[in-house]
Amino acid sequence: MANTYDSANIMVFDNEVLEQKLQNDLITRLDMNQFITMDYSLAEAPGMIKKIRVYKGTGSVEDLAMGVGNSEAIGSEYEEKDYRVLTTQGHVPFYDEQRMADPKAIDKAIQHLGEALVNDNTTKIIAELADGSGTIATLDFDGIVDAIAEFPEESHDDMYLLMSKKQYAALQKECKEELRYVEDFVRRGYVGHLAGVPIFVSNAVDEKNAFLACRSAVTCFMKKGVETEQERDADHRKTDIFGRVVKVIALTDATRVAVFTEE
Asked: 60, 201, 209, 216: which has the fewest C-beta neighbours closer than 10 Å?
């Protein structure tokens, strides 16, 4: 039987022996911040619009004969997308009587507040990756190599493959000769690599999409970081805990993402 603790529900356990465990509610245990660029320079206030511009150079240099000028100019062009700056907040209220009755229930609520903020971050990062410009039909060795070749840079030190457990199992069967494991997986979360690219498995990725991307593809523009605030109503013996973050998670370079999509 599930019991919900809120301001109207105080439960006392009498003559019972409790086995208490704080369940982990994280969507994924992977640190998603390792897959994105963090930027703490956010100056906009909540509700304002942050415009993200992605620039690319245009034009080229030319070999010219004497007295001949350039036939084209070098410049730049950009694509712009609007993102609204949001305050993401969670609230944990509890009374002293609730903490005395079952302190673990309050501990779990506070823990869940932090996990909910992390899950929100994870969900938004995956959604931005899904807007990447490249789409490859098949998640196999040939498809991965072809996708890598489409990226602008020659070296890809910050490139990664992110996929579901089911997709990784299929890739293991498909590439059992090519797939190489690395000792670094305990420290960094790798489960192997293909064509020099580390592979990460996460429950946050659905079974139809996998991502080949660089950290520069998605940026989290954040003000300060996670803030916590506590209010105390001594007369009513009530405590309110708030956790909040002001941020924008945006796709800042769609060319650094290839999306493997299965129908």
From this structure: 60
Q: What are phi and psi of 109, to 5 degrees?
A: -60, -40
Residue 212, classified by CB atoms within 10 Å of its CB into exposed (0-12), middle (13-18) or buried (19+), is: buried
pLDDT tens, residue by residue, 151-194: 877 777 889 999 998 998 888 887 776 666 555 544 555 677 88
Report which of 10, 215, 37 is spatially closest to residue 99, judged by C-alpha positions: 10
Query: How many CA atoms are closer than 13 Å to the CA of 155, on its beta-carbon side?
Result: 1
In the numeric block, which tokens belong to residue 111?
Answer: 């823990």
User: Could you tell me the two tokens for 145?
Assistant: 């190599």
For domain 83-261, give its CATH number from 3.30.70.20, 3.10.129.10, 3.90.1690.10, 3.40.630.30.
3.90.1690.10
pLDDT bin (cut points 50, 70, 90) of residue 125 is very high
> Does the CA dihedral 132-138-144-145 come out positive or negative?
negative
pLDDT at 186: 46
The label of the residue with tokens 């993401």 reads 88
